[in-house]
Each structure stands twice: as structure tokens, then as C-alpha cells.
Amino acid sequence: MQLQYGLLGGGNGAFIGDVHRRGIAFTGLAGLCAGCFSRNMEQNLQTAKLWNIADESRVYADYRSMAETEALREDGIDFVVIATPNYLHYEMAKAFLEKGIHVCCDKPLALTVEEATELEQLAKEKKLCFGVTYSYGGYAMIRQARTMVETGEIGQIVHVAIEYPQDWLLLGLAEGKKMWRLDTSLGAISLATADIGTHLEYLITAATGLEVTEVLARFDYIPAEMQLETNSNILLKLSNGASGALWSSVVAIGHDSDVRIRIYGSKGSLEWFHGTPGLLKVCRFKEPAAYYAMNRPYNSEKSLEISHLPAGHPEGYFEAFANIYEGFCRDIIAHNNGLATGGLYYPTVSDGVRGVRFIHACVKSNANGNTWTAL
Ligand SMILES: NC(=O)c1ccc[n+]([C@@H]2O[C@H](COP(=O)([O-])OP(=O)(O)OC[C@H]3O[C@@H](n4cnc5c(N)ncnc54)[C@H](O)[C@@H]3O)[C@@H](O)[C@H]2O)c1
After folding, report:
1. Which of 100, 173, 174, 285 is the most exposed place for a label (fewest CB within 10 A)?
2. Pocket test for ligand 1, best of 7, 8, 15, 186 (most atoms within 8 A of CB)
């Protein structure tokens, strides 16, 4: 392996840490050598055994001692992955950046815009790579959509409709689960928008190159006792003047991770659905609808370079993470060789900062009686 990394979170049967680990393994560029997978050292050692970390001295009880020790080791980690609850992202990322270690953090990057911009500044000062795992931008057919928008295949973009309905909150409440995402004492100011709406804000940019510039948000609190919004409808202004509509919900019964984006242009439209990620629906005005399939030669270079299996063999969530990590790891390798870039696009700390601005603008818009609010 060319690179070594450490993982924060992922223990105790956590969801996303193991997805990062498997995604990174797909790249073949980095190996897991260290970690602090939870707050419980005994469980951390068990997790390390499960994940074949041979050297127990590189399993840590807390992330600060991990940052310090790994920075001092000659064979210390090249980068750290942060897959812990949101309120820990800022302090963890800062601790590793300060020690000169590259960072890849899950979304949202931080709780406040100030924290997020501080991380961006610190990474810049230290000349370190900083990725943010907006997973849905890692799909090959999203890169195909981006190429088709950029080459003018569907004309001028006039509207984007995007949604992410789920029902995990209702399932969690029914099971009486304790959920850190609902805990306002840990700094949470938003639920549906911060947890999944933020994916959509980035996905618009990944698929079209446009950015959200203003929002008008209306939050719903379902069930009524919820302190944070669980259903969020947001009107958007995009950087080319087009409009958009963004819906995220964690109380949409029957929906899993049903991300869908529809991009409308003056000459045609594009549609991508997470349930069929290898297909992109392409409609040209007055022509029959077509479905572009992943890894067929008619796709763009940018889409093909992150397609791995022969057409027809499904690629999914793990590969989307792998594609983000491929770009991130290639950048670190380029950095180690004195080069500016590894040449593969992936979401960075600047995208993470914009994501935090988006969440705060939505909260402000809703609180001010659904008024247009700039990012
Ligand atoms: N990119 C995506 O598609 C995606 C999907 C799900 C979650 N996420 C993000 O990933 C993060 C984690 O979400 P999750 O669903 O895996 O949560 P989770 O509650 O399932 O897991 C959190 C993990 O962090 C560990 N942890 C808590 N405090 C720690 C500490 N001080 N030191 C080390 N480990 C600690 C917990 O033990 C657990 O293993 C969140 O920021 C969430 O927004 C992203």
C-alpha cells in the first residue's frame, strides 16, 4: 500500500465508518493501520482485531493521543478518516491538521460556519489535503450528468428538482433508540437539512457545476414534539439564476435512501435515481427518452475513469466512497511527490464549508418566516 490511514468512529456496530473502510480498500491505495473506533478501549481493541490491525499500540483510547503519537512515528498515518457524530468533526479535524496529517471527514463538516472556515484555512496554511465524503457525488452517472450539462447537451439549465426522503427517524422513535442526531445539547440546530439536505446541496453542484446562492426554507416538525425539523422544503436560487426545489425528509414512510435529482434545461432534461445508480435518463426535446448505462463507451471520460466493472454489473455505495477516496489518495500521493494534483475530482473542504453555510442559511430563513437568505 502506498498510504496508511487511521479511522475515528466505526466501532460499536456504527454505520458509516465501516463503509469508509471498505470504500478505501477498493482503491488499493491505502491500508488501515491505526484507529480510535469508539470511546471504549476494550471495544476498540476488538474492532482492531476484526479489521486486522496487527499493532495494538496503534489502537487508541482517545483521538488526541492518536494524533500526537501518529505524528511522532516515522511510519505514522498519512491521513485520518473522521466518521464520528457531527459535533466531534471540528475538534478532531483540527487536532490532526495541526499535526500535519491529511483529513477526510464525513458531512456536515462542522457545526458552525466559523469552525468550518477555520478548518479550510488551516488545511490551506498547512498545505494538507482535506476531503469531505458527500457520497452521492461519487457515482459515475453523476459525472456523466455533469459532462452533459457542461457540453450544453440539455441547453441552459432552468430548474433543478432534488429530493431525499427517508423514514429512519420514525423507526428509531418506535424502537425507543437514543439518537445523537436529535441532541440539541450537542450543538445540533437542524435535523433533516443537516443530515441529508446537505447531501443534496452538494449533489446539485456535483451534477451541474452550479452552486446554491440563496434559499427560502420551510421546516416541518413531525411528530409535533420534535425540537428539530424532520421535513424540510427549500426553494433555491442557483448561481446561473435558475430556480430549484430541494426536499429532505426523515419521516417519509416507506422511503429508504431515495435520492433523486432532475435537471431541466432549455433543450432537454436529465434524471438520476439512487435506486438505479448505473442509469441516467436523458430526454431531448421531442425525442424518445433514453437511458445511458454506466461504463458504456458513449459516456464521458470523467464518468468512465470512475467506472470499474463491465457495463451491466452493478456498482453502488461502496464504489461511490471508493471513487471519492481514489481522488483524495491520489492527491496525497501527488502532494508527497511535490505535484499539485492527482488529477481526479472529489469533494473538498471548500465544498464542506459551503454545506455548513447552506444549513445555517436554511435555519435562518425558516426562523425569519421563510425569507430568501443568501449563503
Ligand atoms: N456520507 C454519508 O453518506 C453518510 C451516511 C451516514 C452518516 N454519515 C455521517 O457520518 C457520521 C457518523 O454517522 P453514523 O451514522 O456512522 O453514526 P453512528 O452513531 O452509527 O457512529 C458513530 C461512531 O462514532 C464513535 N464515536 C463517538 N464518539 C467518539 C469519540 N470521541 N472517539 C472515537 N469514536 C467515537 C461511536 O462509537 C460510533 O462508532 C456523521 O457525521 C454522519 O452525518 C454520512
Report:
1. 174
2. 15
What digits encode the pLDDT tens for the residues 268-313? 999 999 999 999 999 999 999 999 999 999 999 999 999 999 999 9
Gap from CA of 89 to ligand 1 centroid (Å): 10
Q: Three-state SS string across the chain, please?
A: CCEEEEEEECCCCCCHHHHHHHHHHHHCCEEEEEEECCCCHHHHHHHHHHCCCCCHHHECCCHHHHHHHHHHCCCCCCEEEEECCHHHHHHHHHHHHHCCCEEEECCCCCCCHHHHHHHHHHHHHHCCCEEECCHHHHCHHHHHHHHHHHCCCCCCEEEEEEEEECCHHHHHHHCCCCCHHHCHHHCCCCCHHHHHHHHHHHHHHHHHCCCEEEEEEEEECCCCCCCCCCEEEEEEEECCCCEEEEEEECCCCCCCCCCEEEEEECCEEEEEECCCCCEEEEEECCCCCEEEECCCCCCCHHHHCCCCCCCCCCCCHHHHHHHHHHHHHHHHHHHHCCCCCCCCCCCEHHHHHHHHHHHHHHHHHHHCCCCCEEC
Q: What residue owns the CA closest to ligand 1's atom 15?
A: 15
- Is the pTM value of this prediction over 0.85? yes
Ligand 1 centroid, distance to 110 Cα (angstroms): 13
85 Cα–ligand 1 center, Å:
4
Q: How much distance in Å is there from the Cα of 14 to the middle of ligand 1?
A: 6
Mutate to test the pocket of ligand 1, among 38, 250, 321 (most ligand atoms within 8 A of CB): 38
Please state the rounded mean pLDDT for residues 340-344.
90
The answer on pLDDT for 237 being more than 80 is: yes
pLDDT band at 12 (very low <50, low <70, confident <90, very high): confident
Q: Is 231's pLDDT higher than 90?
A: yes
- For ligand 1, the distance from its centroid to the CA atom of residue 307, given in whole angstroms, is 28
